[in-house]
Specification:
Blueprint: H1 13-22, E1 25-26, E2 29-34, E3 37-41, E4 51-55, E5 58-63, E6 69-70, E7 74-78, E8 81-85, E9 95-100, E10 113-118, E11 134-137, E12 140-143, E13 154-156, E14 173-176, E15 188-196, E16 203-211, E17 224-226, E18 229-231, E19 243-245, E20 258-260, E21 273-277, H2 295-300, E22 304-309, E23 312-313, E24 317-321, E25 324-328, E26 342-348, E27 351-357, H3 362-370, H4 372-381, E28 383-387, E29 401-407, E30 410-416, E31 431-433, E32 437-440, E33 443-444, E34 454-458, E35 469-472, H5 474-481, E36 498-503, E37 509-514, E38 521-524, E39 534-538, E40 544-548, E41 552-557, H6 565-568, H7 571-577
Antiparallel strand pairs: 1-2, 2-3, 4-5, 5-6, 7-8, 9-10, 11-12, 13-14, 15-16, 17-18, 19-20, 21-22, 22-23, 24-25, 26-27, 26-28, 29-30, 31-32, 32-33, 34-35, 34-38, 36-37, 37-41, 39-40, 40-41
Length: 578
Amino acid sequence: MRKQTKLVAVTSAAALLAIGASMTSFAATGWVEEDGTWYFYDNDGSKVTDDWKKSGDNWYWLDGEEDGAMAMDKLVEDDDDTYYVDSTGVMVKNTWVKVVNEDQDDDSDPAEYHYYYMQSNGKAYKQKGDTLSKKTIDGKQYAFDADGVMLYGWVDKTGEMQNDDTGWTGDDVVYYFGGWEDGSMKTGWQRISVYDDSSDKDDDYDYWFNFKSNGQKRTDTNKKKINSKYYAFDERGVMVYEWFQTSASESNASPASWNYFSSPEDGARIYKGWFKVAPPTEDNSFLESDDTFATSDSDDESDRWYYSDDEGLVSGQIKKIKGKYYGFFPEGTKAGRMLTGLCALEMDGEKIVKVIADDMDSDDLDNFMDSDDAFNAQSETNTYLYYFGSDADSDGAMKTGAVNITLDGDSYAFYFNKTGGVESKGRGINGVDSNDYVYRYGQKVKADSDEKFILVYASADYGDDSAIVVDYDGSDVRKAANGGAVDYLTGLSYLSADSYDLKNKDGDTVRAVVGFAKEDLYLVNTSGKIQKAVTAKVDGDDWYWYSTKDDGVMMYTNNKTLTDTDLANNKWKDLLAK
């Protein structure tokens, strides 16, 4: 800090000669030099003590503690005022002076010297009243105590220095005046070394603080905009960094109460941007509870992708970001994390109510498709499959249209809705697409290689966007004929085909299933292609399918010889007519 001249007492022969040159000696009256010391005698011949006397343009103090000797290089207390005389005895004005701190205390007052500022009248500037008062000197602001000592370090609102280890944390300790050789009031950003005994720290740390134009530190736990960026500060005034709970109205477990504030060197809140970090844990610098918004992710301590907008951390929704759509976990053990891979989501418009499964593998997909919940999920709970790419670091955006997804080395064909807004875009479609393929939750329904062909039921009876797909093959016919249960057929009126035993020309019994609800049934092969006109197409059960382009699926038999006797007499057509 650049102050005006700081004077320290230096007594020398040259100084005394300078004094003599400015004074006139009179016998026993006025200024008198005795053995190198100057005194001032009154008209009655007595020494003047504890009073100021002028010589030329300068004032001098006659020190009663030294039997009236002119004081040099010393603080002078005159009534309630404090002055300073330099090494020539002259009262100094409009300047800084420093004196040795005789009461130096390493804890509360470690200053080696105390500084004073002497005004134009020679009086040291002092605090007035019970609150901090500041004085502007050479464009900077300083504060002084009731004795005129320049304040430094941490100072409370009453003007008391609080420079012991934990003094800076006090509620009323709002000012910082730099080190003892500085003393100027700090504003704006300041990096300050403090002792932090909170949590498990118990050491000195360099923290960032921000001080307002009036010198008071910020303690805004809610985000504060400074130079076009947002910051937050804890109740002690420390700039927070990384994860911090900014909303007292929300619980620690709610992602809505959290923001991410970059590194300890930066601290700017991530605002409308992506960031990949580990979620907060009990070791987080500013976490005051073991609860976090992402418990299982916190325990794992792995980096995750998050996104923050002007409202804070995004969670529990599908959100459009720079022209692409992304999904984020709702409240729970993984809240806020960006979704990736194939995901089963329970939706309410654009809101994600529940993540049933995320980043699914082949077993997850099979379990979902085979479960009773999945069979009825769409009509009852608005559950859909979405695909958010295969690699969180390189992709993560929602995929639409025809997509081949590789799970555990196997390829699965899907089709995801390409139209609509956030409320419908990206959902796996259900039912028949362009009369070519049938989809269930977006997955193309195909016969396995050992099945060759399967019968598929697709209906829109469960809502405009809903459909149920059911396999049907010769094994089901045998089960039903033998009194066995075919679970997904039970109570379903849409598949009401009857089985008959007929005779062909060879006298063989032909089991024929006829009477299908043709408008809802589709025969698909191993590529998923709907078979619109087939004759005696054998499946993996060695049964044969028949269909026409106009009427769809007509008949299913265990023998492709259909001539003579009952079959030759077209009895099967009569059955179809029923």
